[in-house]
Design a protein that fits this description.
The structure is a single chain. With about 180 residues, this protein is mostly helical. It has a single domain (about 10-180), classed as Orthogonal Bundle (Tetracycline Repressor, domain 2), CATH 1.10.357. The protein contains 10 helices and no strands. The chain has helices spanning about 10-25, 30-35, 40-50, 50-75, 80-95, 100-105, 105-115, 120-140, 145-160, 165-180.
Length: about 180
Amino acid sequence: MARQREFDADVVLDALRNVFWEHGYEGTSYADIMAATGLKKGSLYAAFGDKRALYHKAIARYDDQIVSAGVKMLRNETLSPRRRIENLMNGPVETAGTREGRLGCLLCNAATDQASLDPATENAVTQSMARMREAISFAIKDAEKADHILAAYFGARVLVKAGMQKEMLKTIRDQTLAIL
């Protein structure tokens, strides 16, 4: 008879998301993963797979929580299209200069860190970004402008990680809103 799991999978998935978000794939060791999750290597392998599988679970968790929240907001028809895009673009502005902002966006991090090396990571990133693009397009009813807004948003996230000042991010936000 198999042993019953003695951990909360949601807590472990959140810990995986956070450790990969902070350190990236290459910068995260199994010791980091074990410390973050409180699980031993064998338990992690049995429940979730190898390090690459753990990384994919972390990206999926980010998509399920962070990206889904953005998609939900962008599809909220009680807000004007302009307000939805303003809310989206305020995210990078609000995190500028914070620890959270310096972690960057896990999708952006994965796109630049692992997507070119691992087809499964590339697929996960492109699917999440496609969801965001579709939600932006839904919000403004303009696919061409949605591409511009998507690029501005993810570019702003990267700039926050690089330490860009809040004033420049406000300018990017305002220029993005001006296309609506």
